[in-house]
Specification:
This protein is of the alpha/beta class and 319 residues long. The protein has helices at 3-15, 46-61, 75-87, 104-113, 138-152, 167-182, 201-213, 226-238, 254-261, 273-288, and strands at residues 18-20, 35-39, 65-69, 92-95, 116-120, 132-136, 156-162, 189-196, 220-223, 246-251, 267-270, 292-294, 296-299, 302-305. The chain contains 10 helices and 14 strands. α1 packs across α9 (254-261).
Length: 319
Amino acid sequence: MNRKMILAVVLLAAATALTGCRAAEVVEGEHDPRIFGATYMTRNNPYFDVLHEAIENVVEGNGDIVISRNPCQDQEKQNEQILEMLDEGIKVLFLNPVDWETVEPALKACQEKGVIVINMDTVVKNREYVASIVETDNYAAGVQCAEDMMKRLDKARIVVLDNPTQTSISNRVQGFIDTVEASAESENYKVVARKCGQGEFEDSADAMATILNRGVECEVVLGGNDPSALGALATLQQYHKDNDVLIYGIDGSPDFKSMLNLGLVTGTSGQDPRQIGEVAAQTAYDCLAGKAVEKYISIAPYMITQENLDDYEISGWGR
């Protein structure tokens, strides 16, 4: 049985500082629809579908139009798509970059066109090109997972599935590692393998298989997001090594909470893509109105485990 089928079967069982923005002419009442652009590193993660829907609701509710592009984890393609949206006349770009650094040519093009950029979830390297950043406190999310792990285990060999080009995941991993290393029992915890899972289910499943094929043993897996953690789970199940392994994700997705409800994973630091989208959209409108907005907006994460799962809706996102 392949990995996706394993997970599908289990899921089926689960189902039975302020900055000023450029001034813009604000028209009271009716106006010609403005075009907003949105691009996310992938649409293979339902998190981004919920994020986009929240933005779309706000934009369309204001009588405007939002167009979106899916670069499929390809930064060169994302840069090209941003240029296409600039040609279509967008006034605002909602950006979740594939690569925090090599997105810069597209950011420069936006600046030259006077387009407002709202950076979401994964922070770009050069922040001068963006009007505002809206994200979950990703470092704190990693801290929460580490603290929960250390409450459960006095010592552990840890596998980390990260994505170095995605700052949200990098910051989560750093928060986790810093918390472990700062503990009085830090010598009892060791990262025995660290491999890029691209933040995707299949890539993370493959990365976990590579690690297991090297003979690596572990008691803990930290996925940089929920799809990474679920990819690891599928591989561990395939190799019959999922017993007694704590699996942590970060997102608070319905899929992960379904696995949590079955006792197959350990915990996830939750975030609310709907809230991020709504805040990002409102920030964009404040910019268009020439108002000062916060340069960095951080939203606190929250830890979800079996112990408090009843406090959350399994099929939904957020609190």
